[in-house]
Amino acid sequence: MYVEERKSNGKIKYYLVYSYREKENIKKIRKYLGVNLSKEELKNSEEKAKEKISEILEEVSTEVFNFRLTKKQLEILNNYNNEIKIFHLNEKEWMNFTEDFVYNTNAIEGSTVQLEEVKEIIEGKRPKDDEELEAKNVAKAINYIRNTKEDLSINLLLKLHKICFDGTKSFAGKFRKVNVVVANSRGEIVHSGVPKQELQEYLNEFIEWYQKNKKKFKPLVLASIIHNQFEHIHPFQDGNGRVGRLILNFILLKNNYPPINITLEDRAEYYQTLQEYSKKDNLKPTLNFLIKQYKKTLKQVTTKNKK
To answer: Residue range 210-238: average pLDDT?
Structure first.
């Protein structure tokens, strides 16, 4: 918010202005403060106007980090949730899901462990290298999010990273102290994580937003926002993709929704949806993508069960 001055006929009129983005448009809310005000009068009027603007914003829109959704936009996004059929996995199906998730989430990040090897690793084969150990660790992380009663927190983020990379990365369970970028296969930078000096502030805002808004969004939409914003922040030196996909499923499971596996073969489309969110605040590509991945997941884990 800022104070705007308008001079006319020797008078100065004051307005408190709040700017916010709605899709690609910038909108403003103005509240008249008065004319030819003293510093004390301006301060008092500004405080009252701030309260009124906050009330208006609470009524007409929902803040999503650096953009806002109107009530109608929120309703449209929440309707995507209707595409997800509630289906609870039995233990055999959970094992199928775990194997598929471990293989795909690691392969997306470059792991060479094959799908047929994952089952042996999960069931007790001694890991022979870091890739196999990370496969076993990610399986442990899935089991953790299935059973934990805790809510999303900074401590949970650290815990999941620690579980995934314990024994393979020296910074397992620690937020980064360096700046990071994401490059494509051609070496072009497609995303920069938030600056290291602002990381803690972003993370605090991330958790505060979740606590304030988690009841406004249906589970699929909430999981999408949390996952995408986590990837936008990129809080770890490495391993953000795997932890982010675990968080996606943590939100779904906490709301009694089935988990979603993002497949290696759809990696390019997945990355594109993240770009749409990070650069354009567009969540719809992510929702459409996750609905397709959910249908694939359901078909895969239940088909395996019938063999």
So the answer is: 96
